[in-house]
Specification:
By secondary structure, this protein is α/β, with parallel strands linked by helices. It contains two helices and eight strands. The chain folds into two domains: 1-63, 2,3-Dihydroxybiphenyl 1,2-Dioxygenase, domain 1 (Roll), CATH 3.10.180; 67-142, 2-Layer Sandwich (Signal recognition particle alu RNA binding heterodimer, srp9/1), CATH 3.30.720.
């Protein structure tokens, strides 16, 4: 892929709608460690990065709407070095913890949080390299 400074380098870029882009950017930076890399308009969009991942925060308008209470229409998984520390950081900023750090047979420790606007985030820490067949998955090769 050709590089372009006007779009994140990540291959997959979630676009999440928030009613207040600036408030969401500030909260995501304080709670999850995201860094704002590009601002588009006063309150239209912002490109955020963390590690080699990216998220775009978009304003509500047109057909874009923030999540509704108690309805999960999407979630974002972010890989981190320490799930417990990330959980504590998010909780300290007012995130609702929907799943405490839990170790799974597929080699990941994960926790789930809901941000103040209703977006669902999963933070995942790799504990071990586990073959999918060891926990009931199946490796599929094209």
């Amino acid at each position: 892929m050709k590089p372009n400074r006007s779009i994140p380098a990540a291959t997959v870029i979630p676009v999440l709608t928030y009613p207040d882009v600036r408030a969401a950017v500030a909260w995501l930076a304080a709670s999850f460690g995201f860094v704002e890399r590009v601002r588009i308009g006063v309150d239209h969009r912002a490109q955020l990065s963390v590690g080699d991942a990216a998220v775009i925060v978009a304003d509500a308008g047109g057909d874009r709407r923030p999540p509704e209470a108690h309805a999960v229409t999407q979630s974002v998984i972010v890989r981190v070095a320490d799930v417990r520390a990330q959980r504590d950081r998010a909780a300290g900023q007012g995130a609702e913890i929907v799943m405490e750090p839990t170790d799974f047979p597929y080699g990941e420790r994960q926790c789930g949080v809901r941000d103040p606007w209703g977006h669902h985030w999963t933070f995942s820490q790799t504990l071990a390299d586990v073959a999918p067949e060891d926990w009931g998955g199946e490796t599929v090769t094209p």
